[in-house]
């Protein structure tokens, strides 16, 4: 033993700086992770994720050592960190065995490397130019080498066992900084995610943190909190007051979620509009800046002084009404462009005072786009985000970016289709190339993913696109994404099926749009206006129903083709694989069921119109005979909504009783009202 120690002492001058090896023997099945002495909280949390990933696939023990300790001989080692946080990485950089710095690969860039050290030590280096670059190096390694799915919680896809030798089965790699430096996720319209576990309008810790975990692995580095802050609908709209009469928010919970997101390396974005339950501005003060300027300023100050909003890394504001999400229409004769030129200056000064490191973003919807194309000009330190039409297209384009840092606000899902996704990676491909190449809109991208789970495909497509906009290929992404989960033959069918589903939502169609069309048809068939809490009733109108016939038939045909393909693919999927059914088959079933029900009501509406034109009671009789068919289809619609998911984790997700109440949901009462009216019409003949 003494000879061995003496021998090691003699070798010290020959060792690589801090990368010294001891003469202790490592177990070939064990893995040693070298953790930096100056590790940050985010790096440490990412390292914990890596350890969990490794334990999923390795049999050997995983041990930590610090960057000041010696490495066991004959061992497999993972050296993880940045040149600032890990001294072993710095020593390798200093002696030119590794190329890594804050400038190379650059902010949010990273590397994979393999290095043979003394005493038969094989080392893998996962490094980053900065903390986020390190995260990408680690999470990409978990995905590509360990086989850990970034969306594992949502898909159920588990990695296969690996040998320690397999950990080295890669070529050294440089992970370039993503082209779009800020990729944010907009937490919006998330009722299903909030409600399915039973506690209404409060997001359970598991679902929300698992969403953040997946987003970070997908390289989203920001999240805009919105619904959870207490959006005004939740405590003002009658539908929500009925759903949750005692609705309240917990600021401590919001505070904890902000801390969690930041501990995972995400910036937190807050839109400082003023309708939130946390401190709502009176509506009558939201549409007249000149008379209520101090109320606006006092509300913002309260946000920055008294609420978790003060922790925001990104602060945004839309040039719109500051309580409700609609166009600003001044009640006191103001020019709205002049109003918001002043608003952005005043708010910007407040942000500089309270949170000088925060980034500022002006998000322009259609009305804001028109204003920007005219004379809206916030201070130049405000980044401008240009909004799509809800379905990743653009109805309005900028005349110029006016020299602002320019980005986009995009939709992976939209309120008109928040129940069933509209898969469109090819559209993301072409539209984003145009926006980036024509308007340099590559400084920021905010992605609205609705309630996340149904929109995984589009959410990840935006992630891949943000790495290299012109290099992103929507068709190749489709293939790679589906083959990650299914065999090549099943993946091919899944792609064809989802493409048909996309076609079936032609002209920006969507599930929620059809809910409204059904209400219009029910209104006509029952001779009753559509009653909306807090709004003017909509009179029944056959013309409104008639204009829906053609596109419903077309969408129903395409949805039917999509469903046939999806079901065909399912024949080759193992029964225990619930993801294929729940993500590929079920959404199409739900959409088809709704269209089929609506189509039946349309047939009844045509018969009623025939009666009105000809006074032929036989037409009414035929309409009444169709009621049992409509009722059967309604029962199918409800049953599939309640029992459709095969993975019991998602039980209750599509429950009509707790879903987002946009445009209501078909009910037995609707059919009873139709029957009552048709019988009365027949008797009155």
Automatic annotation (TrEMBL):
Q: Which domain of life is it from?
A: Bacteria
PANTHER family in the cross-refs: GYLCOSYL HYDROLASE 115 C-TERMINAL DOMAIN-CONTAINING PROTEIN, PTHR37842
Q: Give the protein's recorded name.
A: Glycosyl hydrolase 115 family protein
Pfam families tied to this protein: Glyco_hydro_115
- What are the entry keywords? Hydrolase, Signal
Gene3D superfamilies named in the record: Chitobiase/beta-hexosaminidase domain 2-like (3.30.379.10), Glycosyl hydrolase family 115 (3.20.20.520)
Q: Where is the signal peptide?
A: 1-24
For this protein, the record's SUPFAM superfamilies field holds: (Trans)glycosidases
Q: Name one GO molecular function term.
A: hydrolase activity
**Which InterPro entries did the record assign?**
GH, GH115, GH115_sf, Hex-like_dom2
